[in-house]
Amino acid sequence: MSRRPTTPVLTWVGELPPAWANEAERLVLYVLALDAPDGVASMGQLVLAQRTGLSVPQLRITLHQLCVPTSLRPPLLERLPRKDRRGADRYRLAPGNDRTSSERLLPLLTTSEQAT
């Protein structure tokens, strides 16, 4: 059995502080990260709901929660415009960190850890 290589985005999701995301939010982030080695995932909501086991209404709530900042964390996800009218939804993980190396994604974590 071969292991899937880890990417900076998967590492970033795995190292998020526990208080930053509940189980459903973390699951959505992991599934999107598997499709986003460059930090941008392109996946329809039906497919994402099937892969996570969430209902579409619960998925929409979870996606919204990930896109808004809380008192504990910045937004963890940004919804991007579709490439065309019928295209899949697009999401950027770790918005504000357009760079993809772990050195560039992980500062989001170190700044939050200093605040706690």
Q: What would you say the CATH architecture is?
A: Orthogonal Bundle
Low-confidence stretches: 98-116
Helix content class: 40-55%
- How does the overall form come out from the CA principal axes? globular
Rounded radius of gyration (Å): 14 Å
By CATH, the topology is: Arc Repressor Mutant, subunit A
One letter per element, helices H and strands E, the order comes to HHEHHEEHH
The amount of beta strand, in percent, is 5-15%
Q: Using DSSP, what is the number of strands?
A: 3
**Count of the domains:** 1
Major sheet strand order: 1-3-2
Number of helices: 6
Mean pLDDT: 81
Structure class: mainly alpha
Taking the alpha carbons of the first and last residues, their distance comes to: 40 Å
Major sheet summary line: 3 strands, antiparallel
- CATH top level assignment: Mainly Alpha
Structure description:
- The protein is mainly alpha-helical.
- It has a single domain, classed as Arc Repressor Mutant, subunit A (Orthogonal Bundle).
- Helix 1 packs antiparallel against helix 2.
- It is globular.
- The termini are far apart.
- 23% of the residues are buried.
- The C terminus is likely disordered.
How is this structure best summarized?
Helix content is 45%, strand content 9%. It is mostly helical.
List keywords for this structure.
mainly alpha; Arc Repressor Mutant, subunit A; about 120 residues; disordered C terminus; 3-stranded antiparallel sheet; globular; about 45% helix
What topology emerges from the helices and strands here?
Layout: H1 8-14, H2 23-34, E1 40-42, H3 45-52, H4 56-67, E2 77-80, E3 90-93, H5 102-105, H6 107-115
Helix pairs in contact: 1-2
